[in-house]
Amino acid sequence: MNKTITFLIPLYNEEKRLGKTITALVNAVIPAELKLEKIIFVNDGSTDNTAEMVNDYKSIIKSATGAKVHLVSYEKNMGKGYAIKTGMKCSDSDYTLFFDADMATPISELEKFIPFMKREDAVIVGTRKNGKSTVVKHQPKYRELLGRMYTLLSQTILNTWVTDFTCGFKAFSREAKVDIFTRSMIDRWGYDSEILFLAKKLGYKITEKAVTWTDDRNTKVKLSSAVFTSLYELLKIRFYELTGKYNISYAKKLAVRLGLAGN
Question: Alpha-carbon torsion 225, 160, 120, 27, what sign?
Answer without folding.
Answer: positive
